[in-house]
Specification:
By secondary structure, the chain is of the alpha+beta class. Helices cover 29% and strands 21% of the residues. Strands 2-1-5-3-4 form a five-stranded mixed beta sheet. The protein has a five-stranded antiparallel beta sheet with strand order 10-11-16-12-13. It is globular and about 70 Å long. The structure holds flavin-adenine dinucleotide (FAD) and FE2/S2 (inorganic) cluster (2 copies). The site of one FE2/S2 (inorganic) cluster has 12 residues, from loops.
Length: 477
């Protein structure tokens, strides 16, 4: 039994006894350590003012920019945490800071620590400084006064300054030093926090505590605490489960652990199809993609989650596990009704299988949102067709934002089955879409807009590779 967590903060080891399992890193830094350089803007992962850098020698990506406002303190056990206060050495600014100063990248300064930390993570990962890459790196940081052009100019120049000593990556926490382990909860608080390390431990734990909240990246769960003030009595953090963050590529397809983060899955999905990679580039921001998992996006059952439509169109299958029992199902069958998924108490998402793209098939996914990145979809359409000669032999069209769950457009698909892939038949399928869905009007889009946009996405898919789905919008500057 342990009651203490331990991690490295700005190069020094710290121990925290009896932390509230849902205390955010941001609140702990500001209120307990008086490290107020890390700011709170939105407390929901949107503005980037709270960005810190997490180092993890075991992760696929060593240095990650993260939103401290939605990161729970115990998830940092054994990791290296760097805040804005840790960058300057002996009065010398870090190259990223110098670049910001000398390129006039700050005015009121409120957003500046967050920008610095996003760039610092990129710097430590030796990231490229072309404008397109930097736009992605900084898409999760908002500035209300400077304007982005000087910040981008500073980012391009950050490698030009003399290097200074960097905070070292703490060695990987091993069994004897890891405060949270196996099936013992973090004790010393009324709430329970478990950090299982194997799928078997997780399965046993969740079977014993079906009331627990599973915590993956926390990009949904974090907001329940910061925005809805939810009290989570029992949390099972799956972030340390060995093998959960693995991707296995075979000739048949991709097997993806439920705990694989967007950032880690991006390349593999992009290889499957470029439009999928492009769509994932637009999920949240760098900070959100460094935390959020594919499993979490499926398990939360949101009708506007971005991964289910393309995965359903690609024919993905889900593996669920409860205790020792596993079952496999088509992903589309998982979503039953709004807020209701085919998941029993104590059952969790273990992995996902995505079949390899058949060269004879065509696929594309398109996300429609008001902003290019860091925005939830108004709708998302994903299309898969297989043809023999000129005739459609298989069609899966899946949409988000059109119904209470991610769902296939089965009438539209049927309108094309066995038919020639031509404009007349495609137009008939577009019209049939109105029988598949009666979308809602809400703040993201009206019902009319959604239906017409969904039809237009089908048309865009028909037009094919020449359709400008890869058109990129410059969003900073
Ligand atoms: C600023 C911001 C921007 C965002 N932008 C987008 C976007 O563009 N597109 C989009 O689709 N989403 C977006 N999201 C939502 C969120 O990032 C995703 O839904 C994410 O995939 C959730 O994964 P997570 O690992 O963070 O899940 P968590 O928050 O940890 O968990 C989410 C839910 O899934 C459950 N859960 C997690 N893993 C499992 C499992 N293996 N088995 C069973 N249950 C599990 C949890 O108990 C919880 O109910 C955004 C969120 C924020 C805060
Ligand atoms: S405070 Fe806005 S992203 Fe954390
Ligand atoms: S410098 Fe004022 S918000 Fe960016």
């Amino acid at each position: 039994m342990r009651d203490t967590i331990c991690f490295t903060l700005n190069g020094k080891t710290v121990e925290v006894q009896n932390p509230d399992p849902t205390l955010t890193l941001l609140n702990w830094l500001r209120q307990t350590r008086t490290l107020t350089g890390t700011k709170e803007g939105c407390a929901e992962g949107d503005c980037g003012a709270c960005t810190v850098v997490i180092g993890d020698p075991d992760a696929t990506q060593t240095w990650r920019a993260m939103n401290a406002c939605i990161a729970f303190l115990p998830t940092l056990d054994g990791k290296t945490v760097i805040t804005i206060e840790g960058l300057a050495k002996d009065g010398a600014l870090h190259p990223v800071q110098r670049a910001l100063v000398e390129h006039h990248g700050s005015q009121c300064g409120f957003c500046t620590p967050g920008f610095v930390m996003s760039l610092y993570a990129h710097y430590r990962n030796d990231g490229a400084v072309d404008e397109e890459t930097l736009n992605d790196v900084l898409a999760g940081n908002l500035c209300r006064c400077t304007g982005y052009a000087p910040i981008i100019r500073a980012a391009k120049a950050m490698y030009d300054y003399p290097k200074i000593d960097e905070i070292a990556l703490a060695p990987s926490a091993k069994e004897d030093t890891l405060a949270l382990s196996k099936t013992d909860p973090l004790t010393g608080t009324l709430k329970k926090y478990f950090a299982p390390q194997t799928p078997d431990e997780l399965a046993a734990l969740y079977a014993d505590h079906p009331e627990a909240t599973i915590l993956a990246g926390g990009t949904d769960v974090g907001l329940w605490v910061t925005k809805k003030h939810a009290v989570l009595e029992t949390v099972i953090d799956i972030g340390r489960v060995a093998g959960f963050a693995g991707i296995l590529k075979t000739e048949e397809g991709l097997s993806i652990g439920a705990g694989v983060r967007y950032a880690a899955a991006h390349a593999a999905f992009g290889d499957l199809h470029p439009s999928l990679g492009e769509m994932m580039r637009r999920i949240g921001s760098t900070q959100i993609r460094n935390a959020g998992t594919i499993g979490g996006n499926i398990a939360n059952g949101s009708p506007i989650g971005d991964m289910p439509p393309p995965l359903i169109a690609l024919g993905a299958e889900l593996v669920l596990r409860q205790g020792e029992t596993r079952r496999r199902m088509a992903l589309e069958d998982f979503f039953i009704a709004y807020g209701q998924q085919d998941r029993a108490p104590g059952e969790f998402v273990e992995s996902l299988f995505v079949p390899a793209m058949d060269p004879a098939a065509r696929f594309a996914v398109y996300k429609v949102s008001k902003r290019f990145d860091q925005d939830i979809s108004a709708l998302c359409g994903a299309f898969f067709v297989r043809m023999q000669d000129e005739n459609v032999t298989e069609a899966r069209f899946a949409f988000g934002g059109m119904a209470a769950t991610p769902a296939r457009a089965k009438t539209a698909e049927a309108a094309l089955m066995g038919k020639v892939w031509n404009e007349t038949n495609l137009r008939a399928a577009m019209a049939a879409l109105a029988q598949d869905f009666t979308p809602l009007s809400d703040m993201r889009a009206s019902a009319d807009y959604r239906l017409q946009a969904a039809q237009n996405l089908m048309w865009k898919f028909y037009l094919g590779e020449d359709a400008p789905y890869l058109a990129r919008k410059v969003h900073h500057g």
